[in-house]
Amino acid sequence: MAKSIVLDGVHHYEGKVTTFVLITCFVAAMGGLLFGYDLGITGGVTSMEPFLKKFFPVVHKQMKDKSENKSQYCKFDNQLLTLFTSSLYLAALVASFFASTTTRMLGRKISMLIGGLFFLVGSLLNGFAMNIEMLIIGRILLGFGMGFCNQSVPVYLSEMAPAKIRGALNIGFQMMITLGNLIANLINYGTSKHENGWRLSLGLAVVPAIVLCIGSVCVVETPNSLIERGKYGQAKEMLQKIRGTEKIDEEYQDLVDASETAKMVEHPWKNIGSPKYRPQLIFCTFIPTFQQLTGINVIMFYAPVLFQILGFGNDASLMSAVITGAVNVVATLVSIVTVDRFGRRVLLLEGGMQMIICQVIIGIMIGITFGLNGQGAFSKAQADILLFFICAYVAAFAWSWGPLGWLVPSEICSLEIRPAGQAINVATNMLFTFAIAQVFLTMLCHIKFGLFFLFAGFVVIMTIFVAVFLPETKNVPIEEMNRLWTSHWFWTKIVPK
């Protein structure tokens, strides 16, 4: 029987970080590349004149309106245009619940493959779109793919990774999101000068979709999923392979015990609402909610559009989006390096405070320059300062609430409620992503620069929430995560011992 070390009340199993598990997790994290690519491609495409002329002529007319009484804040305010962006996330919300059942009954691999296939078909429809209906249907299919991938990939990564580097490997998903976003911004910059460049931008999503489909066939299933479906022999062999040692008896037994406990739960959706799982339900709901209320997707979705509203030229707006995308990638690397060293709480708290400061400064600068009537323009020096604080805001999110918004919910749920917990996490995330994407341009038109103060207020609330209620999950094995709540000053009053 292999022995484990007990530190801080939790087990630290034997085993090493194998090349096999690193490669497997890298392939699985490709699901994030598609997510990020879509985040980045949408804002650039919706700022391209040929695309607007073909599908949104009303918006194109508004954009060209140079009359003095036309507010800069309202140049892109159009519900059909925002529906092009937001329909994907509404579809992802619906798909996440079907993905929950698929992930549990058929395994994580199958769920990732289904997501890849949806992405592939949706990308082709968007690239060859001849009318708005074809465009929206393609977006909906992309949303189904996102729902399946966002459900299965974070769970897959958390289950495959050793506890001591689980944070870093799980953030591989967010790293791929940021890379996909940067690639999309670069492609938009290159295609924006061509009449049908938008088709290339949308259609190139087939490349990562094909990679994900092939990768999901090639990767192995997690031991947790194999045990969950009664394949105990395969699970033990797989655990030995991914840990690089035959001394996995204790960890294997803990996984089997956790699975047996899970099978005793007949109604995981009902049980996640019981007092025993109240902390998981709250965090799987509140963390994705707060993640979107930071306002980050204002930048991720609408960066080129936002920069045009603020007076940047078309090329300058697309290049500014590239710069923020590059900052996003570098800052996510910072998170990968630090998350298992300093812990989740430190990054979330520091990131929150930095975002508050940046949003307040951005709001003040826009307010001073544009006022309430939306008339004005930034000088070159002012634009550079504004871009700096937007980048500082993006960096803060990218090493805190961006990756940890996916990591924490995926690691705190025990096996018996994990599919339900992750489905709630994804569905909540997609609901608020849809809402922000759909109403942002309208809110900017009406609330104006005050919108940035509103998001700063939400960040204040969520930073206090983390400081008071979130225990540190660093280095805690997933199957022992339930012990955290009974030792926390607040949750011990709610969770039965």
From TrEMBL:
Membrane topology recorded in Swiss-Prot or TrEMBL: Multi-pass membrane protein
Transmembrane segments: 20-37, 80-98, 110-130, 136-157, 169-188, 200-220, 281-305, 317-339, 351-373, 385-408, 420-441, 447-470
Family to which the UniProt record says this protein belongs: Belongs to the major facilitator superfamily. Sugar transporter (TC 2.A.1.1) family.
A GO-annotated cellular component: membrane
Segments forming domain Major facilitator superfamily (MFS) profile: 24-474
Name recorded for this polypeptide: Major facilitator superfamily (MFS) profile domain-containing protein
InterPro entries assigned: MFS_dom (IPR020846), MFS_STP/MST-like_plant (IPR044778), MFS_sugar_transport-like (IPR005828), MFS_trans_sf (IPR036259), STP/PLT_plant (IPR045262), Sugar/inositol_transpt (IPR003663), Sugar_transporter_CS (IPR005829)
GO molecular function, one term: symporter activity
Keyword annotations: Membrane, Sugar transport, Symport, Transmembrane, Transmembrane helix, Transport
Compartments reported by the entry: Membrane
Record NCBIfam families: SP
Domain of life, per lineage: Eukaryota
Top-level taxonomy: Eukaryota, Viridiplantae, Streptophyta, Embryophyta, Tracheophyta
Protein's UniProt keywords contain Glycoprotein: no
